[in-house]
Predict the 3D structure of the following.
Amino acid sequence: MKAAIQLQKQLSILSVILFLFKIGAYYATHSVAVLTDALESTVNVIAGFMGLYSLYLSSKPRDVNHPYGHGKAEFVSSAIEGALIFIAGIMIINESVHQLLDQPKLKSLNIGMLLIGITGLVNFLFGTYIARKGKSLKSLVLQSGGKHLRVDAYSTFAILVGLGLVKITHWLWLDSVVALLFAIVIIYTGYKVIRKSLAGIMDEADTQLLQEMVQYLQDHRKDNWIDLHNLRVIQYGSKLHVDTHMTLPWFYDIAQAEQEIHSLEALIDNHFNSKIELFVHIDACKPYSCKLCAMPSCDKRMQTFVALQPWTMRNVWENAKHGKEPMPV
């Protein structure tokens, strides 16, 4: 978490510097397309400092009032960032329409293009780096910030192309048209950020994460892990909350069951490289479980082993023991 906070500090400082560059480019050119870029950067500045606070908050340990920790602060921060991006897009559309009707003269395009070209290159390089680090650190704030910087860079490069066309053709209306087109892109970006953040707040299942975990457990299951069901996975910041029901041989004592839980936890931790909070409800096997049990030497067996029940997203998610119904062919 310390690494994520340090990166977010760098991102916040960089956003202020780039914002000043873009404001300078706007005053040099009076281009509404450049203003589009500058308005989006105000979102970067606000979101950067909000993200920094949310990372600090989410790093705090759980307490009596927050028994599951403070990880959801990242989702709230990301949702606000998405709303700000959306509002910036609306503001850009309003300014673009106004400029399209008035068509003021542009000036000093060379200086303006140089300034925003520098900001675009820096945004792309740093945004790519931040997004990758955010993914490795399991930080939604850093991932959102990195993606936002790259979108900002793409819009900057397109604005450069638009200004180049204006310079060549002297069609001033192209400046407003370019700004309008990218206002739509910005609004869509804001919608996606809000959508992902609300999904996290509502504990919407991350199907990709769940599929990866189910497949990994299936590939590394032990013979005495007879059944796994009611599996739920939620990620809050860098912490992974996993709870499930595991069926073990009915004759295992508490120490043996505890050992299997630790083995499952180590397996998940080794693959996902996250802080794991694992809750396992132990079920004792039943006579109908024997046909699914691959334990090679079990003197308690009451039915002949038929085949393992493959663990899939569908049957591991269900809150029902496997083996009661006939196995699918």
The first strand starts at residue 227 and ends at 236. The mean pLDDT is 80. The two ends are 47 Å apart (CA to CA).
